[in-house]
DNA sequence: TGGCTGTACTG
DNA sequence: CAGTAC
DNA sequence: GCCA
């Protein structure tokens, strides 16, 4: 059977299907219907047979002069960092599988993506360009670190200590029951319940007399107080009960969920539960917060009408060193948020939720308002500490991948256009990339890597142009199929807008990268909510506990679901309908909708979070290592570099540190294309012209920027050669080692084990997982 | 109440 | 085996 | 933190 190139023009191959491993059986020409169904014309002739690949000599032998250019350019580009990714999953492990996969991470910062030449003829014309590699090594993201760390628990502590002071004063005040003080001897015997009743009675009496408490900031709070033990009220307990009454609170002697608004206790969980007659904390109704005594005190001496707020970042105190509070609505909100004084972490969120309170109409019609300040910008990628992807490179890109939005496929319908809208004129290569005049070599038929110099035969700005239509089709398909998957890049923040989405008279576009020019549009309708939840999730990522770990898991799920939620969420109930959003998250969502903020974020953002996040940003450093290092005194990348605390790094971590910024940042799409093109050329020129090498992953899915470059390598076997033996591994090895040293370092040296090369691995991109 | 994707490399 | 990455 |  004759080998037909997989991506021949008439037959855009379904790479996904191929990767799924069903399509290619050694020696088996038949193509599963699944593949046929998805490939344009049904007859996918691509198959792989066993045999042997070309002589090793061939793979290393030639050293075309172009190669030097490539290397020089690659080098110059300062691209780097990565590892081979093996993704075993798809098929039963099968050594005969022909696919190799590798990922190249890259960084975007220096991307002088405007310059682009023919694949082969990259001249050294701009050697003056900054060599990022040299400068990018250890960059302490001081600003980031700073802003992250400074906003910390200290503010909470401040509150607490203030509270403590207030507590002293509170206790110092004369007892409400002073007259009864005479029964001093008996006081040891009074139970809290009795004492509470006594106090209430006294209060009623006083009120009957028209006396009023001076600062009744606790008015309306129906408090069940639980001291350490409930046998007898200690003097402390009595003092506190006293205090509560004095400040307008209501002491509820017997716990009644229907009446009590707050449970105040500093006791242990067990004591409280015993007193309440409950078995676990979860049995306490959600609407009743369990708070520490410090919460009660938090309103002491506070100016009325002013609510404390977790001061934001740097400007949290003025010159006088006093904390700047921010005014907020209600008069009665003069106390700390309950969650700031939660007695039990498990019940942090318990309490009267804001949105219920405000249901009473206090709030403006805000909830339905769509124009919340969308804190856009840093997509807070999982590692979000790296240099931000520069937006202008990305925006420049927006034009590269335009194509008609009509139904998929026919590759001839793929057009390139400038920023004016476009008819299908396959002739206008006006990509910014081409500004410097070098039309990129572009084979229409993707797989063709004929070592020849057929450069220039095609003009196209994007090596993968052919795939756009298909990718677009995939997206389109996704739209009609709700099994939305996430993107492991964490980059899937694109809204899956209907393909028709037109905007400002601009051409309809199919990819998010195309839409990049219309930033406000590509965001989800619930973007503000998502941002906040993501922020909280990022914080939890830096926490050590299992609990937090799963919380992150959960938030992630909820956030993904929210992204594809088509409508603006306006009610708790609606939020709950989203898969993955439970009661807690729904409440958080409502809080965000109503206030634009999420108090829990401030609460969780403790001192260590910022530093831990930074440490975790190092490739090879996860939760545990990060905390270990933190405990050893490391706070910054410099600390790590200095091996503060005597920490040791694995080789992967060293590399991760060295290329911190690179790994943590994304490159604009065209840069990925550039690198890929070079790699592809190396593969063709130096290794084997028959190699089928294609770019996958986020690039293929049309993202505007890429965190890495996913590459699929395989080889047709129509010539009877195989992937077995040393050949393919050698190919890969050669490919890798042909990269400039810097690449090799990070890319190969650190993360790749030789063992990897002993086998043939399969790489799959995320988009394939689901179907 | 237990489970949360699943696999492979490093040390 | 624990830790990490994808 | 969610879900079955």
Automatic annotation (TrEMBL):
<keyword id="KW-0548">Nucleotidyltransferase</keyword>
<dbReference type="InterPro" id="IPR028207">
    <property type="entry name" value="DNA_pol_B_palm_palm"/>
</dbReference>
<dbReference type="InterPro" id="IPR043519">
    <property type="entry name" value="NT_sf"/>
</dbReference>
<feature type="compositionally biased region" description="Polar residues">
    <location>
        <begin position="134"/>
        <end position="146"/>
    </location>
</feature>
<feature type="compositionally biased region" description="Polar residues">
    <location>
        <begin position="33"/>
        <end position="42"/>
    </location>
</feature>
<feature type="domain" description="BRCT">
    <location>
        <begin position="213"/>
        <end position="298"/>
    </location>
</feature>
<keyword id="KW-0235">DNA replication</keyword>
<feature type="region of interest" description="Disordered">
    <location>
        <begin position="133"/>
        <end position="183"/>
    </location>
</feature>
<dbReference type="GO" id="GO:0016829">
    <property type="term" value="F:lyase activity"/>
</dbReference>
<dbReference type="GO" id="GO:0003677">
    <property type="term" value="F:DNA binding"/>
</dbReference>
<feature type="region of interest" description="Disordered">
    <location>
        <begin position="418"/>
        <end position="455"/>
    </location>
</feature>
<dbReference type="Pfam" id="PF14792">
    <property type="entry name" value="DNA_pol_B_palm"/>
</dbReference>
<dbReference type="InterPro" id="IPR036420">
    <property type="entry name" value="BRCT_dom_sf"/>
</dbReference>
<feature type="compositionally biased region" description="Basic and acidic residues">
    <location>
        <begin position="432"/>
        <end position="455"/>
    </location>
</feature>
<dbReference type="Pfam" id="PF10391">
    <property type="entry name" value="DNA_pol_lambd_f"/>
</dbReference>
<keyword id="KW-0227">DNA damage</keyword>
<feature type="compositionally biased region" description="Basic and acidic residues">
    <location>
        <begin position="356"/>
        <end position="366"/>
    </location>
</feature>
<dbReference type="InterPro" id="IPR002008">
    <property type="entry name" value="DNA_pol_X_beta-like"/>
</dbReference>
<keyword id="KW-0237">DNA synthesis</keyword>
<protein>
    <recommendedName>
        <fullName>DNA polymerase lambda</fullName>
        <ecNumber>2.7.7.7</ecNumber>
    </recommendedName>
</protein>
<dbReference type="InterPro" id="IPR002054">
    <property type="entry name" value="DNA-dir_DNA_pol_X"/>
</dbReference>
<feature type="active site" description="Nucleophile; Schiff-base intermediate with DNA; for 5'-dRP lyase activity">
    <location>
        <position position="588"/>
    </location>
</feature>
<dbReference type="InterPro" id="IPR018944">
    <property type="entry name" value="DNA_pol_lambd_fingers_domain"/>
</dbReference>
<keyword id="KW-0234">DNA repair</keyword>
<dbReference type="InterPro" id="IPR001357">
    <property type="entry name" value="BRCT_dom"/>
</dbReference>
<feature type="region of interest" description="Disordered">
    <location>
        <begin position="353"/>
        <end position="389"/>
    </location>
</feature>
<dbReference type="GO" id="GO:0003887">
    <property type="term" value="F:DNA-directed DNA polymerase activity"/>
</dbReference>
<keyword id="KW-0456">Lyase</keyword>
<feature type="compositionally biased region" description="Polar residues">
    <location>
        <begin position="418"/>
        <end position="428"/>
    </location>
</feature>
<dbReference type="GO" id="GO:0005634">
    <property type="term" value="C:nucleus"/>
</dbReference>
<feature type="region of interest" description="Disordered">
    <location>
        <begin position="304"/>
        <end position="331"/>
    </location>
</feature>
<keyword id="KW-0808">Transferase</keyword>
<feature type="region of interest" description="Disordered">
    <location>
        <begin position="481"/>
        <end position="508"/>
    </location>
</feature>
<keyword id="KW-0238">DNA-binding</keyword>
<dbReference type="GO" id="GO:0006260">
    <property type="term" value="P:DNA replication"/>
</dbReference>
<feature type="region of interest" description="Disordered">
    <location>
        <begin position="1"/>
        <end position="42"/>
    </location>
</feature>
<dbReference type="InterPro" id="IPR027421">
    <property type="entry name" value="DNA_pol_lamdba_lyase_dom_sf"/>
</dbReference>
<feature type="compositionally biased region" description="Basic and acidic residues">
    <location>
        <begin position="312"/>
        <end position="321"/>
    </location>
</feature>
<dbReference type="GO" id="GO:0006303">
    <property type="term" value="P:double-strand break repair via nonhomologous end joining"/>
</dbReference>
<dbReference type="Pfam" id="PF14716">
    <property type="entry name" value="HHH_8"/>
</dbReference>
<dbReference type="InterPro" id="IPR022312">
    <property type="entry name" value="DNA_pol_X"/>
</dbReference>
<dbReference type="InterPro" id="IPR010996">
    <property type="entry name" value="HHH_MUS81"/>
</dbReference>
